[in-house]
């Protein structure tokens, strides 16, 4: 199997003059050194933004994170349910890998979440659950009352998943009572919210489009599937969890045969959006096969979509000039974005790498890789003469393809490296033409996404959420919902 002509030429030249080969080595060494250093910066960056002790937390309550280090333009001294849940999931990963110093913060987050659920806000209150869809709060856990794109229905689902991840750890440690008293009551409210409101419209993760969002639907499905197992382990019922198959059915609606259309309505956009890749990494199940139905990172759908999405940014940003298909590029939210001038985002570029590391893990675990008609264009950018077929792990073809995917993934980290200033701080965005940092400095979610991408690169993955056992869904979707029961959760001191 031949590599892409350009690469093959380089290798040929390398045999004659030493420089391209040593350049490659130097490039690799630079990347490894960057990653080593940036890991420390990123973890500290997350911790700095959490109350009560973080150096940038502005007095945030214990377990509450600011979105980023920016008072105005954008005003990020607030706490978002989504950002914090995704960040805590990343911290739980670090904790499960052995960083036990993070446990107190995880527990403080759970206690803060219980309190936040009781705050009556412009989305509603806890009595009928509607208040749980509120996207952001003041950092002292009071309501943010100004106009906003609300509700955002991904928040409760993501928070449930974060809490379940820690709850499952407690169960594995034999701490059943703690899981039952401190974790389950909070989770139960969030699952009830998902079961009752999943079919209602709401704003997407970018807080712009009111309708249905792929990311939200997927996060809801995952929460209910793992909620069911968690409830069962605790001997509790989960009535809400029964609608999971209906949500999975609805998830299929976002696939148009070529790519994921992330929002309905599309509001005049193409609908091709990093929403889709962030979804894939969020519902990544290390034990899954390459299921199209759940858009697993290694699925043909998710890979085909990855190419369509990344290619869109090549001609959009000045910094991507010369970055041809198959070469990593700077990635933003969606090409039509105008927020802060419409720039690449660190968390978007990192997610683009992370999906590929996840896929590599899944292929390795299942012992083979398939190239299908649908995923062929993705693979062909990396290995020019690749053919459709199954490549068992023992074959040269498998090695050629997976090596190429890995260096493609590493390329996205190299792009992030190129636009990281020497202090290592990660803002929200970097400028589309100059690469200079734009928007909020020290974005909590940017740091968290660095940590997860690098964890996956190192083969560290979350526990399975049993996506494959829950794959059946009805032929015709029904918008069934379940009326929820909500109660104030009062975790006892940890
Ligand atoms: C528009 C942005 O695109 C969105 O992400 C942001 O949260 C809101 N404005 C509020 O600043
Ligand atoms: C704007 C982003 O679009 C949204 O996803 C995020 O929750 C907020 N900023 C806060 O970081």
From TrEMBL:
The keyword GTP-binding does not apply. It catalyses: Hydrolysis of terminal (1->4)-linked alpha-D-glucose residues successively from non-reducing ends of the chains with release of beta-D-glucose. Residues 1-18 form the signal peptide. Its EC number is 3.2.1.3. Pfam families: Glyco_hydro_15. Gene3D superfamilies: 1.50.10.10. Keywords: Carbohydrate metabolism, Glycoprotein, Glycosidase, Hydrolase, Polysaccharide degradation, Signal. The keyword Chloroplast does not apply. Residues 41-454 form the GH15-like domain. Belongs to the glycosyl hydrolase 15 family. This is glucan 1,4-alpha-glucosidase. It comes from Aspergillus cavernicola. The lineage of its organism: Eukaryota, Fungi, Dikarya, Ascomycota, Pezizomycotina.
């Amino acid at each position: 199997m031949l590599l892409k002509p350009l690469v093959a030429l380089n290798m040929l030249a390398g045999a004659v003059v030493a420089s391209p080969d040593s350049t490659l080595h130097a490039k690799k060494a630079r990347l490894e050194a960057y990653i080593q250093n940036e890991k420390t910066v990123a973890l500290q960056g997350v911790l700095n933004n959490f109350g009560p002790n973080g150096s940038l937390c502005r007095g945030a309550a214990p377990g509450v994170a600011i979105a980023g280090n920016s008072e105005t333009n954008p005003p990020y001294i607030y706490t978002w349910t989504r950002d914090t849940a995704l960040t805590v999931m990343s911290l739980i990963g670090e904790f499960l890998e052995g960083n036990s110093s993070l446990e107190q913060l995880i527990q403080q987050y759970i206690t803060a979440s219980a309190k936040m659920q009781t705050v009556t806000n412009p989305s509603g209150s806890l009595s009928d659950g509607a208040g749980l869809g509120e996207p952001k709060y003041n950092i002292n856990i009071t309501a943010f009352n100004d106009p906003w794109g609300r509700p955002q229905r991904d928040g409760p689902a993501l928070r449930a998943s974060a809490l379940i991840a820690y709850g499952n750890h407690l169960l594995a440690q034999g701490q059943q009572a703690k899981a039952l008293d401190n974790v389950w009551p909070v989770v139960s409210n969030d699952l009830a919210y998902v079961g009752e409101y999943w079919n209602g419209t709401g704003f997407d993760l970018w807080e712009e489009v009111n309708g249905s969002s792929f990311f939200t639907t997927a996060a809801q499905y995952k929460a209910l599937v793992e909620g069911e197992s968690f409830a069962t382990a605790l001997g509790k019922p989960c009535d809400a969890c029964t609608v999971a198959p209906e949500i999975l059915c609805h998830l299929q609606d976002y696939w148009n045969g070529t790519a994921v259309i992330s929002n309905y309505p599309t509001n005049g956009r193409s609908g091709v959006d990093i929403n889709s890749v962030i979804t894939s990494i969020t519902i990544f199940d290390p034990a899954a096969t390459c299921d199209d139905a759940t858009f697993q990172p290694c699925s043909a759908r998710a890979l085909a979509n990855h190419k369509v999405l990344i290619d869109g940014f090549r001609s959009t940003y000045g910094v991507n000039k010369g970055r041809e298909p198959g070469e990593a590029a700077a990635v933003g939210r969606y090409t039509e974005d105008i927020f802060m001038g419409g720039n690449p985002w660190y968390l978007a570029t990192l997610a683009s790498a992370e999906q590929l590391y996840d896929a590599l893990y899944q292929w390795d675990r299942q012992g083979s890789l398939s190239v299908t008609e649908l995923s062929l264009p993705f693979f062909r950018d990396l290995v020019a003469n690749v053919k459709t077929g199954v490549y068992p792990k023992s074959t040269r073809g498998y090695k050629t393809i997976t090596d190429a995917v890995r260096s493609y993934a590493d390329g996205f980290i190299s792009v992030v490296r190129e636009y990281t200033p020497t202090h290592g701080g990660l803002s929200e965005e970097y400028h589309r033409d100059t690469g200079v940092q734009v928007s909020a400095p020290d974005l909590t979610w940017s740091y968290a996404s660095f940590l997860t991408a690098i964890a996956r690169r190192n083969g560290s993955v979350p526990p399975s959420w049993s996506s494959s056992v829950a794959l059946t869904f009805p032929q015709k979707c029904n918008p069934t919902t379940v009326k929820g029961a909500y109660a104030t959760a009062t975790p006892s001191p940890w």
